[in-house]
Amino acid sequence: MRVTVIDYKAGNLTSVLKALRHLGAEAEVTDGDLVPIERAERIVLPGVGHFAATQRLDATGLTLAIRAAIMRGVPFLGICVGMQWLYAGSSEAPAQPGLGYFAESCTRFSDSKDKVPHVGWNSLEVRADSQLLAGVEPGEYVYFTHSYKAPVTADTAAVTQYIEPFASAVERGNVMGVQFHPEKSGATGLNILGNFLHWEGTE
Amino acid sequence: MITKRIIACLDVRDGRVVKGVKFVDIIDAGDPATQAARHAREGADEIVLLDITATHEGRATLLDTVRRTARELFVPFCVGGGIRSADDAAQVFEAGADKVSVNSAALADPMLIDAIGRSFGAQAVVVAIDARRDPEAVDPVRDAQVLVQGGRKLTGRRVVEWAREAEARGAGEILLTSMDSDGMRTGFDCELTAAVSEAVNIPVIASGGAGTVDHFVNVFGRGKADAALAASIFHFGVSSARSLKEELARAGVSVRLPC
Fold this sequence. Notes:
The structure holds 2 protein chains of 2 kinds.
Chain A lengths: L1 E5 L7 H9 L3 E5 L4 H4 L4 E3 L9 H5 L2 H11 L3 E4 L1 H4 L4 E2 L14 E4 L9 E6 L1 E2 L14 E6 L1 E2 L6 E7 L1 E9 L2 E4 L7 H12 L6
Parallel strand pairs in A: 1-2, 1-3, 3-4, 4-13, 5-6
Antiparallel strand pairs in A: 6-10, 7-9, 8-11, 11-12, 12-13
Chain B lengths: L4 E9 L2 E6 L3 E4 L3 H10 L4 E6 L8 H11 L6 E4 L5 H9 L4 E4 L1 H5 L2 H10 L4 E8 L12 E4 L4 E6 H10 L4 E6 L11 H10 L4 E4 L5 H8 L6 E4 L1 H4 L5 H10 L9
Parallel strand pairs in B: 1-4, 1-12, 4-5, 5-6, 6-7, 7-10, 10-11, 11-12
Antiparallel strand pairs in B: 1-2, 2-3, 7-8, 8-9
């Protein structure tokens, strides 16, 4: 299976590529060339760091190409900021729109006695019909590092509790996102990436 | 629920894992890639590789070690030692690290923290602080001093104030080593760890002094640590991360289990 990984210069891709290749995927990288997106079989949008970095997706034309690929039914996985980008935007960079596939916006964790960022291994409450998270048992943990998060809605595939409940995974049709880092989440994370690589649709 | 992390630390010299007692007596403890894989398999939540010679010697060996260690490692992987510039950091990330830890170079040029954070995100920057209580001070803990060169040299900086500056510059975590306790197996410096953890809003990783399970219970409780580093407690078969975490869970500490 071939997977196209988008490099928009927000952090390091090495770990994501390594995990995908470990699972047998043929991973190619594009940092602005639209041709790989036009013929992509699967797309992964990683990302750590600041939401404003997604501006590069607009500047390079990748946003339009990704939107077209999603319309064609290409399975799409956003990781961390890559998941947040699927929403309308984020209060981290209010002037920078997201893709808007999910109508809501991402916000910073509320002030509390707990630290922000949320860093470490936390658990998932998985929606029963999630294909992305199939096989993830209650009590399995995944690795997070983030200060902004998506709200819990009907599209939420998993809920995690930190300060408040938030969407740790989202899934509607061929579009999926995870707030955590599956490439850094041991066997549980590899299982989830494997589910994405084998995702064949809801029919 | 967020869990407390147990981080396995590999001190590496010339491509081999070593462990010093108070940074002096060095004992060989194996191949870094093999050791890292074993710790991950045995339940470590994260791996830190500290190159204790990188400051003085070439980096080619380290990059090769990082590459080999990262290859089959699917938990967070932090590399420190001798990272003096954003370019050094970029090479280590390219080789497969998820985070870098900076220490003396950040003290010499605090802008290094900003620079790495800008390029790779705050989550990728760990500021390591070697701390020693100041017995001369009115408050030896709050006025603890920052040391460099393996604890041999005072910097004139105070630990709490430096941790706050590191956070403000975009550090994602603080790795706090008590030089009074390091290698002694007499317990973490819980008072010092709590003082730093309360002063910043980023995670604090406690290091130095782990010898028993109770030491970890204490540093997660009284010490308010978000994570704790363990090196010598694992190296010689004293315990695996999993068995340590099972005992922590029995003591009421939230940890990632099964793992």
